[in-house]
Specification:
Elements: E1 9-11, E2 18-19, E3 32-34, E4 41-42, E5 55-57, E6 64-65, E7 78-80, E8 87-88, E9 101-103, E10 110-111, E11 124-127, E12 133-134, E13 147-149, E14 156-157, H1 166-169, E15 177-180, E16 183-187, E17 203-204, E18 225-226, E19 239-241, E20 248-249, E21 262-264, E22 271-272, E23 287-290, E24 305-308
Parallel strand pairs: 1-3, 2-4, 3-5, 4-6, 7-9, 8-10, 9-11, 10-12, 11-13, 12-14, 16-17, 17-18, 18-20, 19-21, 20-22, 21-23, 23-24
Antiparallel strand pairs: 15-16
Length: about 300
């Protein structure tokens, strides 16, 4: 439940299955921790702010960790995560300033928001084809990250997840756009009027087409998610047909599209942000067609006529 000693090395006794949240929080002398094979759960902030912690071996049976488990562990340089761990929670290694290498478990699917944010010396991490989700700001500020492994299976990427990294900077453009796995992160060619997406694209990221001259949303099938403000300031858009197959629309997708008049949302969309069409104060929309099952899921105070079908 709680550690109150001042040792440099701690061996947690065998048989312990869970470490409570904050159990070793801010232990100023702790440098090494030996955990038992019986351990399955490590609670949130369990080792946060242990600034001298340089070695910890996470047992193979650990399958659940809470938020901020190793946040601000300044002396931690390398970590190996167990194969049973399928999700890495928010801020897990946030501000681990000297962390250089991370070995992910073979079954890890989700890296949640800000997991490795501000790990300024992180050089490599080994994503594999099972990794599906990289959360917002997951690697923000990782200015030395040059190798992320296999990103081919990634289908959802949050805002600014990898943008600050040398790895992202080194990625080649595809038809004027940059991708992480199957996610279109941004269109760099603002003058393009027609975009041909890479085959297999599953998501259009937040602000991906901001300020471009595109006039059509006639994208290939397969896209499941359109991120928030994805088409902000797209002045050429006048009629937007969301592609069939899209399941989620983020916040204010068409923000400041001054010439947009009509929007069609297909039945495939199951969820929308609460303010998917913005507050409506400045818009010039005339018609918005929305499937019946989305009724009540969003607010809209603009002048357009909402047509449910």
């Amino acid at each position: 439940m709680k550690y109150e000693g001042n040792e440099r090395k701690i061996t947690v006794k065998d048989g312990i299955k869970s470490i409570a949240g904050g159990a070793f929080f801010d232990s100023p002398t702790l440098e090494e921790v030996v955990l038992p094979e019986s351990l399955a759960v490590i609670g949130g902030s369990a080792f946060s702010c242990c600034q001298k912690l340089s070695y910890i071996d996470i047992p193979d049976n650990v399958e659940l960790m809470g938020k901020k488990v190793f946040e601000a562990c300044d002396s931690l340089e390398r970590i190996v995560l167990p194969d049973r761990l399928r999700s890495l929670p928010q801020y897990s290694f946030h501000q681990c300033k000297n962390l250089k290498e991370v070995i992910l478990g073979s079954d890890l699917k989700d890296i949640l928001d800000n997991s490795f944010a501000e790990c300024e010396n992180l050089k490599s991490i080994n994503l594999n084809d099972k990794t599906r989700y990289i959360g917002e700001g997951a690697f923000e500020g990782c200015k030395k990250l040059t190798d992320i492994g296999d990103s081919s299976g990634v289908s959802v990427v949050g805002y600014n997840a990898l943008d600050d990294t040398p790895w992202y900077s080194s990625q080649e453009e595809v038809d004027g756009c940059k991708y992480v796995g199957n996610v279109l992160i941004e269109c760099l060619d603002k003058k393009k009027t027609d975009i041909k997406l890479k085959e297999g694209t599953t998501m259009i990221g937040d602000l991906a087409f901001e300020g471009t001259k595109i006039y059509s949303l006639d994208f290939a099938k397969g896209i499941k998610i359109i991120g928030y403000r994805a088409f902000e300031n797209c002045s050429n858009l006048s009629f937007a047909v969301i592609p069939d197959g899209v399941e989620y629309l983020g916040y204010d997708v068409f923000s400041s599209c001054k010439n947009l008049r009509e929007i069609y949302v297909p039945e495939s969309v199951k969820r929308v942000s609460f303010e998917v069409f913005g507050n409506g104060i400045f818009d010039k929309y005339k018609n918005i067609a929305v499937p019946n099952h989305l009724s009540g899921m969003f607010i809209y105070n603009g002048r357009a006529r909402i047509k449910y079908y």
